[in-house]
C-alpha cells in the first residue's frame, strides 16, 4: 500500500509545476524515436512469428472435416487483434522499454543528474518522465497496429507456405464476421498498457537509491511489475469492454 | 550572505546533523570539512533544498529558503550554482549543451546570447575546445570543470561545491581549487565547499567549519586550523603522515 500511495503521488507530481509546453515537444519527439522507432524491429520479429505459430497450431487442432479452413484465418485474426498484438507486444515492450526507462532514470538518480535538475528549480519528474509517458501513449498504439498487420501476414505466409490453407481461404476468413470494435478495443488496451509500463518503470527508476546494483534491481522490478500490471489490466479491460 | 541556524536532521533513529549554525560571507570560499559520514553532504543538501531538515533555518541574504513561498524558493534557486561530486552532467547532451541547459530552461535569452554566455563559461574553465564532446568522452577533471561552467552560467550569487577534488590527482585538484577561488573572487560569489582534502583546506579555506559526528566542533580559517586544541580536528588534520612529520 505504501508503494501504491507513493506511485499515485509520483503520478500527481508529473503534472505539478510543469515546464512550458514548448520544452516538452522536442523531448517527446526524442522519446518517440527512442521508445517507438527503436522497438519496430523486435515488435516486427515477435509478431510475425506469433502469427505464423498461431496459424500452424490452429490448423493442427482443427481435426474435423466439417469445420471450414477459413476458420483458421478467423482465429488468427481475432486472437491477433484482441490479444496477441496488444498484449504480447506490450509484454515485449515492457521488457525492452521498461528496463530502458528504469535503467536510464536510475542511473540519472545515482549520478546526481536528477538532483542537478531539482537544484535548478526544474520539476525533474515532470521534465524527465512526462515525455516518456506521452511518447509511449503515442507510439504503443502504432506498434500494436504494426504488430497486428505483421501477425496476420505471418499467419498468411506460414499457412500458405505449409499448404495448410489457400490464399483465397485465408483472405476470405479474414473478411468474415469482422467486428470493427475489436480494433478499438486493441487500441484502448495499447494506450492503457503504454501508460502503465511507462509510469511504473519511471517510478521504479526515479526512486532508485544506492549504486549500480540497485539500478539493475530497479530495471528488473520495473519489468516484472509492468508485466503484472499489463496482465491484470488486460483482464479488467476484457471484463469491462467486451 | 548565507546563514544557517540550528540545522537538525535525523534519518530514522540516527541523528545526522545536530544544531549546526554558521555564516558564509560573499567573496569568501568557506569550507565544510570532516571525515566520511559526519554529515557534510547532508548539510549541503539541506542548504540547497534537496533534503528538508526537521528543524532550523537556511537564510539567503535574509530570505528563508526552507519556509519561504514558492516564488522565493524559485528566486533563490536561480541564484544558486551547484557543482556535484561527479559533475552530474547530463549524459545525453554535449558539453556545450550541458552548460547551456540552465539558460535554455530558465531564461528567455536569444539563442545567440545563450551560446555566447555558455561559450564564455567554457572558456573561463579552459574547455572551449571540448564543447562538442559528450560527457563520456572527457576525463573526471574535465567533468568537474564543465560542472563549474554549468554552475556559473546563470551568474549565481551562491556557489556550492560537493567534494570538488574527489577522484582527482593532486595537480588537477589544485587546478580545480584555484578555479573555484578565482571564480569566487571574480564574481564576488558566496562559495561553500564540502571537502576532506587537506590541500584544499590549506589553499582555499578562508573560512573553515569542522563537523564531527553531526556536530560543529570548530570554526576558523586555514591560518588558525593548525593551532586548534580540538582533539577530533587534530586527529583529522594529522591523519596524514607527511603533516604529522611536519608538525613533529
From TrEMBL, chain A:
Keywords: Membrane, Transmembrane, Transmembrane helix. GO terms for molecular function: phospholipid transporter activity. Pfam families: MlaE. One of its GO terms (cellular component) is ATP-binding cassette (ABC) transporter complex. The chain crosses the membrane at residues 35-60, 133-159, 180-201, 221-241. InterPro entries: Permease_MalE (IPR030802). PANTHER family: ABC TRANSPORTER PERMEASE PROTEIN-RELATED, PROTEIN TRIGALACTOSYLDIACYLGLYCEROL 1, CHLOROPLASTIC. This is ABC transporter permease. It comes from Larkinella punicea.
From TrEMBL, chain B:
The keyword ATP-binding applies. The keyword Metal-binding does not apply. It comes from the Bacteria. GO terms for molecular function: ATP binding; ATP hydrolysis activity. Residues 2-238 form the ABC transporter domain. Signal peptide: none annotated. Keywords: ATP-binding, Nucleotide-binding, Transport. This is ATP-binding cassette domain-containing protein.
Amino acid at each position: 500500500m505504501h508503494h501504491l500511495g507513493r506511485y499515485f503521488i509520483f503520478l500527481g507530481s508529473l503534472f505539478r509545476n510543469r515546464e512550458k509546453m514548448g520544452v516538452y515537444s522536442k523531448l517527446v519527439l526524442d522519446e518517440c524515436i527512442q521508445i517507438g522507432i527503436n522497438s519496430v524491429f523486435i515488435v516486427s520479429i515477435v509478431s510475425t512469428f506469433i502469427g505464423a505459430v498461431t496459424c500452424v497450431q490452429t490448423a493442427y487442432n482443427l481435426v474435423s472435416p466439417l469445420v471450414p479452413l477459413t476458420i483458421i484465418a478467423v482465429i488468427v485474426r481475432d486472437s491477433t487483434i484482441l490479444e496477441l498484438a496488444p498484449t504480447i507486444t506490450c509484454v515485449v515492450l515492457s521488457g525492452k522499454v521498461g528496463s530502458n526507462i528504469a535503467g536510464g532514470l536510475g542511473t540519472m538518480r545515482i549520478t546526481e543528474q536528477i538532483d542537478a535538475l531539482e537544484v535548478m528549480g526544474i520539476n525533474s519528474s515532470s521534465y524527465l518522465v512526462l515525455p516518456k509517458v506521452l511518447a509511449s501513449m503515442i507510439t504503443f498504439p502504432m506498434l500494436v497496429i504494426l504488430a497486428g498487420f505483421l501477425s496476420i501476414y505471418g499467419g498468411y505466409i506460414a499457412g500458405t507456405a505449409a499448404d495448410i490453407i489457400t490464399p483465397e481461404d485465408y483472405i476470405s476468413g479474414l473478411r468474415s464476421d469482422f467486428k470493427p470494435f475489436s480494433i478499438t478495443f486493441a487500441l484502448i488496451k495499447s494506450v492503457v498498457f503504454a501508460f502503465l509500463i511507462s509510469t511504473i518503470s519511471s517510478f521504479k527508476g526515479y526512486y532508485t537509491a544506492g549504486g549500480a546494483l540497485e539500478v539493475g534491481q530497479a530495471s528488473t522490478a520495473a519489468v516484472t511489475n509492468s508485466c503484472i500490471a499489463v496482465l491484470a489490466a488486460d483482464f479488467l479491460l476484457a471484463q469491462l469492454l467486451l | 550572505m548565507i546563514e544557517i541556524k540550528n540545522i537538525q536532521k535525523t534519518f530514522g533513529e540516527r541523528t545526522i546533523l545536530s544544531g549546526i549554525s554558521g555564516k558564509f560571507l560573499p567573496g569568501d570560499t568557506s569550507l565544510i570539512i570532516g571525515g566520511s559520514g559526519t554529515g557534510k553532504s547532508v548539510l549541503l543538501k539541506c542548504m540547497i533544498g534537496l533534503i528538508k531538515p526537521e528543524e532550523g533555518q537556511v537564510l539567503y541574504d535574509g530570505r528563508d529558503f526552507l519556509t519561504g513561498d514558492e516564488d522565493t524558493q524559485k528566486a533563490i534557486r536561480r541564484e544558486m550554482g551547484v557543482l556535484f561530486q561527479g559533475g552530474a552532467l547530463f549524459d545525453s547532451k554535449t558539453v556545450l549543451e550541458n552548460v547551456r541547459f540552465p539558460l535554455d530552461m530558465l531564461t528567455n535569452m536569444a539563442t545567440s546570447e545563450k551560446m555566447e554566455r555558455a561559450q564564455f563559461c567554457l572558456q573561463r574553465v579552459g574547455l572551449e575546445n571540448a564543447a562538442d564532446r559528450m560527457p563520456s568522452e572527457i576525463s573526471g577533471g574535465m567533468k568537474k570543470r564543465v560542472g563549474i561552467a554549468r554552475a556559473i552560467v546563470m551568474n549565481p550569487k551562491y556557489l556550492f561545491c560537493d567534494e570538488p577534488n574527489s577522484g582527482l590527482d593532486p595537480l588537477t585538484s589544485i587546478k580545480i581549487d584555484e578555479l573555484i577561488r578565482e571564480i569566487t573572487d571574480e564574481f564576488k560569489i558566496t562559495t561553500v565547499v564540502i571537502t576532506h582534502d587537506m590541500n584544499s583546506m590549506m589553499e582555499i579555506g578562508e573560512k573553515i567549519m569542522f563537523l564531527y559526528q553531526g556536530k560543529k566542533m570548530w570554526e576558523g580559517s586555514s591560518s588558525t586550523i593548525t593551532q586548534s586544541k580540538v582533539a577530533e580536528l587534530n586527529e583529522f588534520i594529522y591523519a596524514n603522515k607527511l603533516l604529522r612529520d611536519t608538525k613533529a
